[in-house]
Design a protein that fits this description.
The structure holds two protein chains of two kinds. The radius of gyration of chain A is 13 Å and the shape is globular. Chain A has five helices and five strands. Chain A starts with a strand and ends in a 6-residue tail after the last helix. Chain A has a five-stranded parallel beta sheet with strand order 2-1-3-4-5, sandwiched between helices. Chain A is α/β, with parallel strands linked by helices. Chain B is α+β, with helices and mostly antiparallel strands. Chain B has 21 helices and eight strands. A six-stranded mixed beta sheet of chain B has the order 4-3-7-6-5-8. In chain B, strand 5 (about 415-420) and strand 6 (about 425-435) form a beta hairpin. The radius of gyration of chain B is 35 Å and the shape is flat. The chains are: A alpha/beta, B alpha+beta. The interface between A and B is medium-sized, with 23 and 25 residues.
């Protein structure tokens, strides 16, 4: 069984392309469409990696990350943030909140898949 | 303490003069070993010895005192530290500045430019990130692009996709392309709408905005012009503007003469321009305090903007004097806005009549609402007035299919066009080009083309509309506003790459149909 990846993204076509790519790499992929759902899903079934859109509705990407880092169980969960180009201030804020990597939209598939693999390789055990 | 890197310079100059190190050492009365240390910057020197070396090398002392070099050295050292350039110690930087001072200066200049550009980019980025609408729009656009790119790469990279999957991904690309077009359109509209406010810093733009806000109608000036005209000509003028024109000519002939003496350029002016110029002088003299009070407005934020606006209002008042509002409006209605007929009736130029038509906005006695544009043959726009929906570009770059440009090929003859915009809106355009005055023997004439535009719904009130009556949309001139935001991607007159993808019309129909 491959690593578990949770995608928190409200754009269905982005979810579909990411799911296709990551499943093709052998990962087990789940997706949620807003921030609150992402938090609930992480609590319910912690993934090995969260791909988090910075502009996700409900709880924003910032809130989600801050709340994840405040919880002992998700403190070390690897989080890759999808962010829009030109939002330098957002990237810095996400970095301060403890994001592990940023991928700037529009990204290339190969780059994204490689960075997912790198993050998972570097990841420490997340769950007790 | 910064090292003063003059050793390399001494060494280079010595070699250029064909001196050995020993010979130089002897000339300045030091040992050869000490000179070697100096040339390798192992000894810091100054005072009498530095002066002796400069004299022996036949160079100004300042070139060796290294005040400028020290400043450069310190600046580059600071930059290298700030940029975390690896392997940069003080000696190497000193050597660089000492040996290549021009390169060092160029490096500092380039770095300053980079800093300026970075600060500008950050400021713009800040603006985008602070503005929630722009931020959302840019996110939407980037998300659409991400989908399109990702699925395109999938289609390209994955050979084993089934037909159904391939078809689905292709349809997603098509759908996302459509969404991208809509988002981009929204952003362009937003920027254009907001741009007018954001760009209020230039005097010309502030004046444009001010005139548009006022609907280019100034009742106080109309009233003042009416009063002055009555004073000059009596009530008859209200009934017969041509009669009044004769009267005002008689009255102002003396002024015309004095203007002529002050300004030798006046004499080659055509009669219509001369009359208008005289009226402008009269207006400027008579309405000075009123004009000052009108331009004392918070929308005009600089002296330059207020002066520019005052000049525009002087021309407005001159038009109000020469073309009395009600008489002019009635004549325009009678002539069905035939500008050529009005130029004859009022002994005026096409531009003067067009200008006055744009100001017929008195509540309850409004004329047809017109937009206005004046361009030179190179496409530089010098006057403009927009209507809601029919915006005139601020700078060059209006749609080249507009008749304002075609009119240059038939100067003195009006050209009309019933234009179909990409969004389906229809406008009637009327344009005429002409030369201004006499430029002098062998000089190129000063040429302008002036265009009026109104919504096609007013077409029946205009004589120009007759030739287009009943014409189906398929025979209208398919034009746009300006290239970059135009959806007619395949237009044969396209001058700039479009920002917005097309779902619209084929290129062959983009040619203007001139009446």
């Amino acid at each position: 069984m491959g690593a578990k990846i949770l995608i928190a993204e409200d754009e269905p076509f982005i979810v579909e392309s990411l799911s296709f790519l990551l499943q093709h790499e052998g990962y087990e992929v789940r997706a949620v469409g807003d921030g609150e759902e992402a938090l609930a899903e992480v609590a319910r079934q912690p993934p090995d990696l969260l791909i988090l859109d910075a502009m996700i509705p409900s709880a924003s990407g910032f809130d989600v990350l801050a709340r994840l880092r405040a919880q002992p169980r998700s403190k070390s969960l690897p989080v890759m943030v999808l962010t829009a180009k030109g939002q330098a201030a957002d990237r810095q804020r996400m970095m301060d909140l403890g994001a592990d990597d940023f991928v700037t939209k529009p990204y290339g598939n190969k780059d994204l898949v490689e960075r997912v693999a790198t993050l998972l390789k570097q990841a420490r055990p997340v769950r007790s | 303490m910064a090292r003063v890197p003059i050793g390399a310079r001494i060494s280079e100059r010595r070699r250029a003069l064909g001196l050995t190190q020993r010979a130089l050492a002897e000339k300045v009365a030091v040992s050869n070993a000490y000179m070697n240390l100096i040339e390798h910057d192992k000894r810091t020197i100054g005072g009498a010895l530095l002066a002796r070396i400069a004299k022996a090398l036949e160079m100004p002392l300042e070139d060796l005192s290294a005040v400028e070099d020290t400043r450069l050295y310190q600046e580059i050292l600071e930059l290298a530290r700030g940029m975390a350039v690896p392997g940069q110690d003080e000696d190497r930087i000193g050597g660089f500045v000492g040996r290549y001072p021009d390169w060092a200066k160029a490096f500092v200049t380039l770095h300053r430019s980079l800093q300026d550009a970075t600060e500008t980019a950050m400021a713009l980025s800040e603006r985008v990130s602070r503005d929630p609408s722009l931020r959302d729009l840019s996110h939407q656009i980037l998300t659409r692009i991400t989908s399109i790119r990702s699925f395109s790469e999938i289609l390209h990279d994955f050979d084993h996709l089934g037909d159904e999957e391939r078809q689905r991904f292709a349809s997603i690309i098509a759908a996302e392309s459509d969404s991208l077009g809509r988002s981009a359109r929204t952003m362009i509209d937003f920027l254009e709408a907001g741009g007018d406010q954001f760009q209020g810093s230039s005097p010309a733009q502030e004046v444009d905005d001010f005139l548009i806000d006022q609907r280019n109608y100034f009742p106080a000036l109309e009233e003042a012009a009416d009063d002055l005209r009555r004073k000059l000509t009596g009530d008859e003028a209200e009934k017969d503007p041509v009669l009044w024109l004769a009267a005002v000519d008689a009255d102002t002939r003396r002024r015309a003469l004095s203007v002529h003496l002050d300004n030798a350029e006046l004499s080659p002016l055509p009669e219509a321009s001369r009359r208008f110029l005289v009226a402008s002088h009269l207006a400027a003299e008579s309405f000075d305090s009123l004009l000052d009070s009108l331009v004392d407005d918070e929308r005009l934020t600089s002296e330059a903007a207020r002066q520019r606006c005052k000049d525009a209002l002087v021309r407005y008042a001159a038009a109000a004097l020469v073309f009395p509002y009600e008489a002019f409006r009635a004549a325009a209605e009678r002539a069905r806005y035939d500008v050529d007929r009005l130029t004859l009736a009022f002994s005026a130029s096409f531009e003067q009549i067009a200008h006055r038509l744009v100001t017929l906005r008195r509540p309850g006695a409004e004329g047809v609402p017109f937009a206005f544009l004046r361009s030179d043959p190179a496409g530089n726009i010098s006057k403009r007035f927009s209507l809601p929906g029919l915006r005139m570009p601020r700078h060059g770059g209006a749609c080249p299919l507009w008749p304002v440009y075609a009119a240059f090929s038939t100067p003195g003859r009006s050209v009309s066009q019933l234009a179909l915009m990409p969004d389906g809106a229809r406008y009637l355009f009327i344009a005429q080009a002409s030369s201004k005055g006499w430029s002098g023997q062998g000089q190129a004439p000063v040429q302008y083309s002036v265009m009026l535009g109104c919504e096609a719904v007013h077409m029946e009130r205009l004589s120009y509309g007759d030739s287009f009556a009943g014409r189906p949309d398929s025979l209208l001139a398919e034009v746009g506003f300006e290239c970059r935001s135009c959806r007619r991607i395949a237009c044969r007159q396209r001058a700039h790459e479009a920002l917005v993808p097309s779902r619209d019309l084929p290129a062959e129909r983009g040619m203007a149909l001139q009446a």
